[in-house]
Amino acid sequence: MALLVDSRLAVRGLGIATVTDRLVDALAAQPSIRVSRWQAGGAWGGRVQVATLGRSGLFDLSPRLDPRTRRFDVIHSLSNIGPVFPGPASVVTVHDLLHRRSRRARDRVFGFLLGRSVAGAGRVVAVSGRTAAEITTTWPALQGRVSVIPHGLRSLGDPSASRTHVLAFGGGGDPRKRVDLMVAAYRRYQALDPDPVPLVVLARAGLTNGQRLELVAAGARVVDQATPEEVDRLMAGAAAVVYPSTTEGFGLPILEAAEVATPVVMDRAADVAHEVLGRHCVLVDGCDPEAWGAAIRGAVEGGPVAAGLDLPDWAEVARRYVDLYRQVA
User: Fold this and answer.
1) DSSP 3-state assignment of 246?
2) The whole model's pTM is what?
3) Are residues 89 and 189 in the same domain?
4) What mean pLDDT is reported for the chain?
5) Residue 12 has pLDDT above 60, yes or no
6) CATH code where residue 267 lies
7) Which among 211, 216, 253, 207 has a CA at the least distance from the CA of 232?
8) Boundaries of domain holding 145
């Protein structure tokens, strides 16, 4: 079976790019599938998005009209968007519907295009039960046509490896990320623990100047850019992850922490996929830095938490997708 994976908008800087890479690798290992991938280069930004879509030709109207894609048995759109008329031999994966909460014109356009795409797709896949419910609530005609296939778990070695830091993430001025709470929580942890482990912040999503200065004052190490391999090493070496985000499309860092038995300090009310909530999650009520600091200290002292999640591996995820491809081909 000839498969085209359209991941043009899963570009560097997005969690979608990370999971797309893992799924494509797993699909390529399936003996019955010949995988071709369409992807864009460059980091995430409006210019890359516009340039990518501008070069798409007839594909974004309908793959059946584009001579480049007629030789494929199935088209799989993996970037939270797809052609306006994808046709019956297609699968569209929906990661989240967060764009529908945005007032930015670009996000609203993408939301409109996604609605047209899922309406005409052979099958629709949601990466979480929450997203599946939101899809069928938004588009009732899709009831019974949405499959839930969560992201897979990797096996990443010995969870008893040395834990040398607390890990957190940037977010600039995005109010969902609550970077200021993360900084305040770590400061309280420093005050509570006589021998605190240092803070490392992955800042690919950005930091304001004020946040950066506060982190420097707290002795944090800021990593502005990191390869996937570096992210894995930092996650595996973390005594805890501080994750105060209020809303995420899925919550990939929570899953990645479970892969290496790292506890995650997070808000009990956080709107994330239910699939990533497990034994490794240390839940905090409210936004009091004192409570967050105490939770960080408890997570660090409690050590690694093995078997935090019960999810399939990526090979099983790929097999589930192959079953869908056979149904629509």
Assistant:
1) coil
2) 0.91
3) no
4) 90
5) no
6) 3.40.50.2000
7) 253
8) 2-152+312-328
